[in-house]
Amino acid sequence: MSARPVSVARTASLTALAMIAFAANSILCRLALGPERIDAASFALVRLGSGAVTLSVIHAVVRAGERARGAVRIGARRALLPAAMLALYALCFSFAYRSLRAGTGALILFGSVQATMIAWAMRSGERFRAAEAVGLAAALGGLGVLVAPGLAAPDPSGAVLMGIAGIAWGVYSLRGRGSVDPIGDTARNFALAVAPGIAVAAVSLRGLHASGAGALLAVLSGAVASGLGYAIWYAALRGLTSIRAALVQLTVPILAAAGGVAFLDERITIRLVASAALILGGVGLAVAGRAR
In angstroms, rounded to a whole number, what is the distance separating the alpha carbons of residues 90 and 102? Predict the structure, then answer.
Protein backbone atom coordinates (compact mmCIF):
# COMPACT_ATOMS: atom_id res chain seq x y z
CA MET A 1 0.00 0.00 0.00
CA SER A 2 2.94 2.36 0.63
CA ALA A 3 4.77 1.67 -2.65
CA ARG A 4 2.56 3.84 -4.79
CA PRO A 5 2.93 7.07 -2.72
CA VAL A 6 6.72 6.61 -2.74
CA SER A 7 6.66 6.15 -6.51
CA VAL A 8 4.48 9.22 -7.00
CA ALA A 9 6.72 11.31 -4.73
CA ARG A 10 9.81 10.16 -6.62
CA THR A 11 8.25 11.01 -9.98
CA ALA A 12 7.19 14.44 -8.70
CA SER A 13 10.67 15.18 -7.35
CA LEU A 14 12.41 14.09 -10.54
CA THR A 15 9.97 16.08 -12.65
CA ALA A 16 10.54 19.23 -10.59
CA LEU A 17 14.32 18.88 -10.89
CA ALA A 18 14.06 18.36 -14.65
CA MET A 19 11.90 21.46 -15.11
CA ILE A 20 14.39 23.54 -13.10
CA ALA A 21 17.22 22.22 -15.28
CA PHE A 22 15.31 23.09 -18.47
CA ALA A 23 14.66 26.60 -17.18
CA ALA A 24 18.34 26.99 -16.29
CA ASN A 25 19.19 25.89 -19.80
CA SER A 26 17.06 28.70 -21.23
CA ILE A 27 18.87 31.25 -19.05
CA LEU A 28 22.28 29.97 -20.14
CA CYS A 29 21.26 30.02 -23.80
CA ARG A 30 20.02 33.61 -23.54
CA LEU A 31 23.20 34.71 -21.78
CA ALA A 32 25.36 33.13 -24.48
CA LEU A 33 23.42 33.74 -27.69
CA GLY A 34 21.82 37.09 -26.89
CA PRO A 35 25.05 39.14 -26.64
CA GLU A 36 26.62 36.95 -29.38
CA ARG A 37 29.30 35.59 -27.09
CA ILE A 38 29.24 32.47 -29.28
CA ASP A 39 27.64 31.50 -32.59
CA ALA A 40 24.66 29.16 -32.75
CA ALA A 41 26.47 26.19 -34.36
CA SER A 42 29.36 26.30 -31.90
CA PHE A 43 26.99 26.62 -28.95
CA ALA A 44 24.99 23.58 -30.04
CA LEU A 45 28.16 21.52 -30.69
CA VAL A 46 29.78 22.39 -27.35
CA ARG A 47 26.47 21.79 -25.61
CA LEU A 48 26.10 18.31 -27.10
CA GLY A 49 29.77 17.39 -26.65
CA SER A 50 30.00 18.46 -23.01
CA GLY A 51 26.74 16.67 -22.26
CA ALA A 52 28.08 13.47 -23.83
CA VAL A 53 31.34 13.58 -21.85
CA THR A 54 29.67 14.35 -18.53
CA LEU A 55 27.03 11.66 -18.87
CA SER A 56 29.52 9.06 -20.07
CA VAL A 57 31.66 9.64 -16.97
CA ILE A 58 28.64 9.45 -14.66
CA HIS A 59 27.38 6.31 -16.36
CA ALA A 60 30.80 4.64 -16.11
CA VAL A 61 30.90 5.34 -12.37
CA VAL A 62 27.34 4.14 -11.81
CA ARG A 63 27.85 0.96 -13.79
CA ALA A 64 31.36 0.22 -12.49
CA GLY A 65 31.78 -3.47 -11.80
CA GLU A 66 28.68 -4.42 -13.79
CA ARG A 67 28.69 -6.33 -17.07
CA ALA A 68 25.79 -5.45 -19.37
CA ARG A 69 27.17 -5.75 -22.88
CA GLY A 70 23.89 -7.01 -24.32
CA ALA A 71 21.98 -4.10 -22.80
CA VAL A 72 24.50 -1.63 -24.22
CA ARG A 73 24.17 -3.04 -27.73
CA ILE A 74 20.37 -2.94 -27.59
CA GLY A 75 20.48 0.56 -26.10
CA ALA A 76 22.77 1.81 -28.88
CA ARG A 77 20.35 0.65 -31.56
CA ARG A 78 17.39 2.18 -29.79
CA ALA A 79 19.31 5.45 -29.34
CA LEU A 80 19.46 6.26 -33.06
CA LEU A 81 16.08 7.98 -33.30
CA PRO A 82 16.30 9.79 -29.92
CA ALA A 83 19.83 10.95 -30.78
CA ALA A 84 18.65 12.31 -34.12
CA MET A 85 15.78 14.12 -32.39
CA LEU A 86 18.16 15.51 -29.75
CA ALA A 87 20.55 16.85 -32.38
CA LEU A 88 17.68 18.31 -34.41
CA TYR A 89 16.26 20.03 -31.33
CA ALA A 90 19.60 21.47 -30.15
CA LEU A 91 20.60 22.78 -33.58
CA CYS A 92 17.23 24.24 -34.53
CA PHE A 93 16.84 25.80 -31.08
CA SER A 94 20.18 27.59 -31.32
CA PHE A 95 19.70 28.86 -34.87
CA ALA A 96 16.09 29.92 -34.26
CA TYR A 97 17.07 32.23 -31.43
CA ARG A 98 19.25 34.28 -33.76
CA SER A 99 16.10 35.89 -35.17
CA LEU A 100 13.31 35.27 -32.64
CA ARG A 101 12.55 37.13 -29.46
CA ALA A 102 12.65 35.03 -26.32
CA GLY A 103 8.87 35.20 -25.75
CA THR A 104 8.02 34.41 -29.35
CA GLY A 105 10.44 31.49 -29.44
CA ALA A 106 9.10 30.05 -26.18
CA LEU A 107 5.52 30.20 -27.44
CA ILE A 108 6.39 28.43 -30.70
CA LEU A 109 8.60 25.85 -28.97
CA PHE A 110 6.20 24.84 -26.23
CA GLY A 111 3.20 25.02 -28.53
CA SER A 112 4.91 22.52 -30.82
CA VAL A 113 5.87 20.29 -27.89
CA GLN A 114 2.31 20.23 -26.58
CA ALA A 115 0.83 19.53 -30.00
CA THR A 116 3.27 16.67 -30.60
CA MET A 117 2.90 14.96 -27.24
CA ILE A 118 -0.85 15.39 -26.92
CA ALA A 119 -1.44 14.24 -30.50
CA TRP A 120 0.55 11.10 -29.76
CA ALA A 121 -1.33 10.56 -26.48
CA MET A 122 -4.68 10.77 -28.26
CA ARG A 123 -3.43 8.44 -30.99
CA SER A 124 -2.34 5.96 -28.32
CA GLY A 125 -5.77 5.91 -26.70
CA GLU A 126 -5.38 8.42 -23.85
CA ARG A 127 -8.43 10.63 -23.37
CA PHE A 128 -8.89 14.01 -21.75
CA ARG A 129 -11.00 14.25 -18.65
CA ALA A 130 -12.91 17.46 -18.00
CA ALA A 131 -10.43 18.72 -15.39
CA GLU A 132 -7.51 18.03 -17.73
CA ALA A 133 -9.14 19.92 -20.59
CA VAL A 134 -9.88 22.93 -18.37
CA GLY A 135 -6.37 22.79 -16.89
CA LEU A 136 -4.75 22.65 -20.32
CA ALA A 137 -6.81 25.62 -21.53
CA ALA A 138 -5.86 27.63 -18.43
CA ALA A 139 -2.18 26.75 -18.76
CA LEU A 140 -2.03 27.65 -22.45
CA GLY A 141 -3.90 30.86 -21.69
CA GLY A 142 -1.34 31.71 -19.03
CA LEU A 143 1.48 31.05 -21.45
CA GLY A 144 -0.20 33.39 -23.93
CA VAL A 145 -0.50 36.08 -21.25
CA LEU A 146 3.21 35.74 -20.50
CA VAL A 147 4.47 36.12 -24.06
CA ALA A 148 1.75 38.17 -25.78
CA PRO A 149 3.04 41.62 -24.78
CA GLY A 150 6.34 40.94 -26.55
CA LEU A 151 4.95 39.21 -29.59
CA ALA A 152 5.66 40.54 -33.05
CA ALA A 153 5.42 39.01 -36.49
CA PRO A 154 8.12 36.33 -36.17
CA ASP A 155 10.82 35.77 -38.72
CA PRO A 156 9.48 32.92 -40.91
CA SER A 157 12.71 30.92 -40.97
CA GLY A 158 13.19 31.30 -37.22
CA ALA A 159 9.59 30.30 -36.53
CA VAL A 160 9.91 27.18 -38.69
CA LEU A 161 13.17 26.19 -37.00
CA MET A 162 11.70 26.62 -33.52
CA GLY A 163 8.61 24.64 -34.52
CA ILE A 164 10.85 21.80 -35.71
CA ALA A 165 12.79 22.01 -32.43
CA GLY A 166 9.54 21.63 -30.48
CA ILE A 167 8.43 18.62 -32.51
CA ALA A 168 11.86 17.01 -32.08
CA TRP A 169 11.79 17.58 -28.33
CA GLY A 170 8.30 16.13 -28.10
CA VAL A 171 9.35 12.96 -29.95
CA TYR A 172 12.50 12.71 -27.82
CA SER A 173 10.42 12.93 -24.63
CA LEU A 174 7.99 10.29 -25.86
CA ARG A 175 10.80 7.89 -26.75
CA GLY A 176 12.34 8.43 -23.33
CA ARG A 177 9.31 7.02 -21.53
CA GLY A 178 10.50 3.45 -22.26
CA SER A 179 14.03 3.90 -20.92
CA VAL A 180 15.24 1.42 -18.30
CA ASP A 181 18.70 3.04 -18.08
CA PRO A 182 18.10 6.80 -18.35
CA ILE A 183 21.70 7.91 -17.70
CA GLY A 184 23.16 5.39 -20.12
CA ASP A 185 20.56 6.09 -22.78
CA THR A 186 21.01 9.85 -22.49
CA ALA A 187 24.80 9.52 -22.64
CA ARG A 188 24.56 7.50 -25.86
CA ASN A 189 22.03 9.94 -27.30
CA PHE A 190 24.36 12.87 -26.68
CA ALA A 191 27.40 11.02 -28.05
CA LEU A 192 25.58 10.08 -31.25
CA ALA A 193 24.17 13.60 -31.60
CA VAL A 194 27.68 15.11 -31.70
CA ALA A 195 28.20 13.93 -35.30
CA PRO A 196 25.36 16.05 -36.76
CA GLY A 197 26.63 18.95 -34.65
CA ILE A 198 30.09 18.64 -36.20
CA ALA A 199 28.59 18.47 -39.68
CA VAL A 200 26.58 21.67 -39.18
CA ALA A 201 29.58 23.44 -37.63
CA ALA A 202 31.69 22.46 -40.64
CA VAL A 203 29.10 23.90 -43.01
CA SER A 204 28.98 27.09 -40.91
CA LEU A 205 32.77 27.37 -40.68
CA ARG A 206 32.97 31.02 -41.74
CA GLY A 207 30.62 32.20 -39.03
CA LEU A 208 32.12 30.26 -36.11
CA HIS A 209 33.24 32.35 -33.14
CA ALA A 210 33.33 31.91 -29.39
CA SER A 211 34.55 33.93 -26.42
CA GLY A 212 35.67 32.27 -23.22
CA ALA A 213 32.42 33.24 -21.52
CA GLY A 214 30.37 31.90 -24.42
CA ALA A 215 32.18 28.57 -24.38
CA LEU A 216 31.76 28.28 -20.61
CA LEU A 217 28.04 28.98 -20.84
CA ALA A 218 27.72 26.32 -23.56
CA VAL A 219 29.58 23.79 -21.38
CA LEU A 220 27.32 24.54 -18.42
CA SER A 221 24.29 24.21 -20.70
CA GLY A 222 25.47 20.85 -22.01
CA ALA A 223 26.96 19.25 -18.92
CA VAL A 224 24.53 20.43 -16.25
CA ALA A 225 21.29 21.89 -17.61
CA SER A 226 21.05 19.55 -20.61
CA GLY A 227 22.94 16.35 -19.80
CA LEU A 228 21.95 15.91 -16.18
CA GLY A 229 18.57 17.52 -16.76
CA TYR A 230 17.66 15.16 -19.58
CA ALA A 231 18.83 12.10 -17.63
CA ILE A 232 16.55 13.15 -14.77
CA TRP A 233 13.72 13.78 -17.25
CA TYR A 234 14.13 10.30 -18.73
CA ALA A 235 13.80 8.83 -15.24
CA ALA A 236 10.74 10.97 -14.49
CA LEU A 237 9.02 10.01 -17.75
CA ARG A 238 8.63 6.42 -16.55
CA GLY A 239 5.96 7.64 -14.12
CA LEU A 240 4.17 10.13 -16.40
CA THR A 241 1.46 9.74 -19.01
CA SER A 242 2.04 11.48 -22.34
CA ILE A 243 -0.57 14.14 -21.52
CA ARG A 244 0.86 14.82 -18.08
CA ALA A 245 4.42 14.95 -19.46
CA ALA A 246 3.25 17.54 -21.98
CA LEU A 247 1.45 19.63 -19.37
CA VAL A 248 4.22 19.85 -16.78
CA GLN A 249 6.61 21.32 -19.34
CA LEU A 250 4.40 24.42 -19.48
CA THR A 251 5.95 25.39 -16.15
CA VAL A 252 9.37 25.92 -17.76
CA PRO A 253 8.66 29.42 -19.17
CA ILE A 254 7.56 30.55 -15.71
CA LEU A 255 10.70 29.17 -14.09
CA ALA A 256 12.81 30.71 -16.85
CA ALA A 257 11.08 34.07 -16.33
CA ALA A 258 11.85 33.85 -12.61
CA GLY A 259 15.45 33.08 -13.49
CA GLY A 260 15.47 36.09 -15.77
CA VAL A 261 14.44 38.27 -12.83
CA ALA A 262 17.25 36.84 -10.70
CA PHE A 263 20.06 36.64 -13.26
CA LEU A 264 19.16 38.90 -16.18
CA ASP A 265 17.75 41.91 -14.28
CA GLU A 266 14.28 41.41 -15.72
CA ARG A 267 11.39 43.01 -13.85
CA ILE A 268 8.51 41.31 -12.04
CA THR A 269 5.23 42.45 -13.59
CA ILE A 270 1.54 41.88 -12.96
CA ARG A 271 1.44 39.93 -16.22
CA LEU A 272 4.18 37.61 -14.97
CA VAL A 273 2.33 36.94 -11.71
CA ALA A 274 -1.00 36.41 -13.52
CA SER A 275 0.49 34.05 -16.10
CA ALA A 276 2.32 32.10 -13.37
CA ALA A 277 -0.97 31.61 -11.50
CA LEU A 278 -2.78 30.44 -14.66
CA ILE A 279 -0.02 28.07 -15.81
CA LEU A 280 0.77 26.50 -12.45
CA GLY A 281 -2.90 26.37 -11.48
CA GLY A 282 -3.86 24.82 -14.81
CA VAL A 283 -1.15 22.19 -14.61
CA GLY A 284 -2.12 21.40 -11.02
CA LEU A 285 -5.79 21.03 -11.99
CA ALA A 286 -4.97 18.75 -14.91
CA VAL A 287 -2.63 16.55 -12.89
CA ALA A 288 -5.13 16.31 -10.03
CA GLY A 289 -7.88 15.42 -12.50
CA ARG A 290 -5.81 12.58 -13.93
CA ALA A 291 -4.91 11.34 -10.46
CA ARG A 292 -8.59 11.08 -9.49
Answer: 16
DSSP state of 266: P
pLDDT tens for each residue of 206-240:
889 999 999 999 999 999 998 888 888 878 887 88
Pair 274, 213: CB distance under 8 Å? no
Count Cα atoms within 13 angstroms, Cβ side, for 269. Answer: 13
User: Rounded to whole angstroms, how far apart are CA atoms 140 and 142?
Assistant: 5
Residue 272: how many CB atoms within 10 A of its CB?
A: 18
* Contact (CB, 8 A) for 224 and 23: no
**Average predicted confidence (pLDDT) for the chain:** 79
Q: How far apart are CA 210 and CA 287, in angstroms?
A: 42
Alpha-helical runs (H) found in the chain = 3-33, 40-62, 69-78, 80-96, 102-123, 130-147, 156-176, 182-203, 212-220, 229-237, 242-248, 252-263, 270-291
Q: d(Cα 238, Cα 259) in Å, to the nearest integer?
A: 28
Identify the DSSP state of 222: I
Give pLDDT tens digits for 65-82.
Answer: 555 444 444 445 566 888
How buried is residue 227: exposed, middle or buried, by Cβ count under 10 Å (0-12/13-18/19+)?
A: buried
